[in-house]
Design goal:
The protein has a 6-stranded mixed beta sheet. It has one domain. It starts with a strand and ends in a 7-residue tail after the last strand. With 88 residues, it is α+β, with helices and mostly antiparallel strands. The mean pLDDT is 77.
Length: 88
């Protein structure tokens, strides 16, 4: 199950929780790291590209992150799963 989904829109990223773990992680990290992040469309946040490091932090802490990026000349996104939670 994917915990966070990141849509890359160039200068901004849209960060969405996709699991309860993702919702808890966002609630705990976004206000501390990016206190002025704009919340849009329910639980999604718009964050500046300069805060992309927060996505690396989520991966390092064991969350499964799906990164979407727009494919020029197409009508959709390319998805990449960035990390998998270790099975213990």
């Amino acid at each position: 199950m994917i915990d966070l989904q990141v849509e890359n829109h160039g200068s901004v990223l849209l960060l969405r929780p996709r699991s309860e773990m993702g919702r808890f992680w966002i609630a705990d990290h976004i206000p501390k790291v990016i206190p002025f992040a704009d919340q849009v469309n329910g639980p999604a946040f718009i964050i500046g590209r300069c805060y992309m490091g927060i996505v690396s932090d989520a991966i390092a802490q064991g969350l499964i992150v799906e990164q979407l990026r727009w494919i020029d000349g197409s009508n959709g996104y390319a998805a990449q799963i960035s990390a998998a939670r270790s099975s213990q």
